[in-house]
User: Fold these one by one.
Assistant:
Number 1:
Amino acid sequence: MLLNLAPTNANYPSMEDIYRGKVRVRVCGLLINNKGILLLKHLHLGPKGHIWAPPGGGVAFGHQATDVLRQEFLEETGLIIEVGNFLFTNEYIDEKYHAIELFFEVQAVDGQLKLGTDPELAADQQILADIKYFNDFELANEDQDNLHNLFRETRSLTLLKELRGFFKFHRRES
């Protein structure tokens, strides 16, 4: 079952209108295979203007987390996924944003990999800029400030799949 999470009117709010000053529950999928981990480049986030983060999105009232994750993956990556085990929770808090992120293992079962869009944002306010797989070597050599905070704990894909618990991965202050 696919969910229509797009706004019903043409007046799209800005990213800050949607997320600033609110607690947001997000679901994120860790798609790890022989190519590496699938990450999306999100503009306007992080100290250097972008971060690479796993696909996922916000859970709206009344929607099941796993259904939202499947929908977000399809919209952002073009992939149809099977949601596997729940792995861990990350709480992120800074002066603007507060997110509770639920991380799941996922596997691609169909679809064609392509950079998608965020239906919550207008076409001229899209923040998704690129999509690619990162292997252990590429993760180790990527600037830490350009990676999601979960990579503060480990950049090993093997160890990443073994993380369990509640974390507060913090971004280093610039």
Note: Residues 1-10 have pLDDT under 50 and may be disordered.
Number 2:
Amino acid sequence: MTRQQSPLGMASEIEGVSLPEPVRRYVQRAIPAGPGAAQSVRVTQTGEMILKPGARPRPFTAFEDLATRHVSFTWTARFAMLGPLGLRVTDRYDGRDGTLEVRALGIPLQRRHGPNLAQGEICRYLAEIAWVPHAILTNRQLEWRQLDERTVEVATHSAEKRVAVQVIFNEAGEITQTVAERPRAEAGNELTTWVGVYGTGLPRSW
């Protein structure tokens, strides 16, 4: 395949890529000029997460591999429990189905999949687009629509369902927030407003 140089100073496999202006400015900031886009991005994480309502936060370490040319990711995390014991959690979307699996000592404790979970996993990929800026240019499955001066919608399709996330920028052109209606298993898969916040120095409650 012949690569064509995009107006943003890097190789893009999408001919005539058209992006809303806030997204175009963000790409110019986030991706330095170079020979081409990465095929995948790995993010490493350390933090705390509340695994169920009313429970205390559990520390975890994780890594996440996100594809740039199609909607797909795998998140693998280890949650400390008691001494050397821990939970291994795998959260993924493979382009067709979403899967959430929990194991302890290699023994499966929980495994979920299905269309509602897949919709939630797609929301996750779209909301994490700030970590995968190359996907903005090379992922043909993404659709972009500007809603107002600082808000853009990014969407894709799963089977016959359209899944969308709003991406909000600040005055400096940085992504600061994402908002979506995401199925919530604890609420019987009822669509629930789901907000992500990007920034430095955020309080622990985020």
Note: The CA atoms of residues 63 and 168 lie 25 Å apart.
